[in-house]
Amino acid sequence: MKNLIALVIFGVGAFAAYNYWEHLNFKSNTDQLTRDLAAYEQGVELKRTEFQTLVKAVAWDQDNRKKLAQISEVQKQQASLQETQAKLNQERNQIITSLRASVLNKPIPELALKDGRKLNQATITQANDSVITVSLPSGIVKITPADLTPEWRQRLHY
After folding, report:
1. Which residues have CB under 8 Å from 52's CB, separation 6+?
2. What are phi and psi of 144, to 5 degrees?
3. What digits encode the pLDDT tens for the residues 13-72?
4. Dist. CA 115–CA 139, nearest whole Å
5. Where are the domains of the chain?
6. Is domain 104-155 in CATH 2.30.30, yes or no?
7. Those residues with Cβ within 8 angstroms of residue 14's Cβ, 6 or more apart along the chain or in another chain
8. Please, which of 60, 92, 135, 156 could form a disulfide with 123 given CB 3.0 to 4.6 Å?
9. Cα 14 to chain center, whole Å?
10. What DSSP letter does each residue of 141-156 carry, written as one string?
């Protein structure tokens, strides 16, 4: 009977030692898994941040592409407007040239200038944007549009 009691005590002690060893092993594994989980969660957070950054970058890229398309459209409109403006300027210059030509080589009894001078029996022989050539019985005079009176500037479209 003593042997049986000793055997039971030994069995209980061995079982307790085995349970204690399993408990320590379980606790060690649990601690390791907790550390692994924390590291995994940090990795997941890092990947989430990277993903959010990529999503923002993709949205930024799409926005830039839309804006580039808008810029391209505006540039096309600008080119069209510049072309139209050039045509209108050309038409305007042709009209002004023809209006100035209607006054050329016609005798003007008296051409008054802004400074008070009067050119008698004048004939305008040439008129461009910067100089007006006037033929007089005494010779040829070149004047600027600023020398003309407001009435003549308007008449010659300056």
Report:
1. none
2. -95, 160
3. 888 889 999 998 999 999 999 999 999 999 999 999 999 999 999 999 999 999 999 999
4. 20
5. 55-102, 104-155
6. yes
7. none
8. 135
9. 81
10. EEE-GGGB-HHHHHHT
Q: What angle do CA 72, 91, 111 make, to 5 degrees?
A: 140
Contact 125, 142 (CB under 8 A): no
**Burial of 145 from C-beta contacts in 10 A (0-12 / 13-18 / 19+):** middle
Torsion (CA) 137, 138, 139, 145 in degrees, nearest 10: -80
Distances in Å between the Cα of 119 and the Cα atoms of 31, 112, 122, 151 are 112, 6, 6, 15
Give me the residue label for tokens 């005590």: 9
Share of the chain above pLDDT 70, in %: 100
The percent of residues in the chain predicted with pLDDT above 90, rounded, is: 66
Q: Which amino acid does the sequence have at 110?
A: E
CB 148 within 8 Å of CB 113: yes
Question: Across the strands, what pairs with 107?
Answer: 123
Q: How many CA atoms lie within 13 A of 61 on its CB side?
A: 6
